[in-house]
Amino acid sequence: DCGGYYLVGGFPNWDIWAEWNGIYRDDVRRFLKGDRGFKAAFATRIAGSADLYNVNQRKPYHSINFVIAHDGFTLWDLVSYNEKHNESNGEDGRDGSNDNFSWNCGVEGETEDAAVLDLRQKQVRNYTVALLMSNGTPMLLMGDEYLQTRYGNNNYYGHDGPLTHFDWDMLEQERQGYFRFVSLMIKFRRDHPLIGRSEFLTDEDITWHEDRWDDEDSTFLAFTLHDNGHGGGDLYCAFNVHDFAIDIPIPPAPVGTSWHRIVDTSLPSPRDFCVEGRPGIERLYTVAPHSCLLLRAQLA
Questions:
Q1: Rg (CA), the chain
Q2: How many alpha carbons fall within 13 Å on the CB side of residue 243?
Q3: Looking at residues 256-261, what average pLDDT do you find?
Q4: ∠ Cα 6 132 298 (to 5°)
């Protein structure tokens, strides 16, 4: 909070201390909300923020990756509000950050618009996939597993009431929805040896399916993580942040394997996450607007 001392990646660390990567938060938020010119930054954060941490003996896990923290918007509010709404804090809205890099998906705050709610559900899943596919140490905020809301308040620390209490009833309501998705995504990350490595990725570890790095209007990014004997199978991941669908060519799976769909955030629960992997992936796959795709190479 001290001016001139925002030193992410530059704090004294003795190759021991990890730190919250606020640059990760901002770059991921800005790319997935559709801001122009953030594709390369998003790729750098996914790959482990080597520009910040690949010095001396530091490792990717020294970057604590997060989209949401204890201060600022909750995950649901990140996709529901363009502006902070801190009137209940008693400071005439002067408190709390004004730089939230949020997008309300078309309507400010609570709504019953089915299209807006569907888009918000896709967006929270997109953020979740990005976070849990990233190299580094992921951090999630308690309560986001059931999509808690503070109704746009991004500086709620002084409240002791329904605004900040853990809502067990809402958790039960969401158990077969987003709670299921984030739980399965956490397990997938924990079980798959290609995600969350202790070393920075090399060209042998990852292929970026990209030739438009300099096109600021392009908000589509796809990559493959290669098994190379680690086990678990190759992983293909694509993010389409455009407001139109894209037919993408899927690269050939390794010999003896075929692609199985694990995640498609455009699909409703429980089809959004298929634990065993859904076979039958064609050479071309239509990635819906504002959605992401995750495939795993499995024995044919």
A1: 19
A2: 5
A3: 97
A4: 150
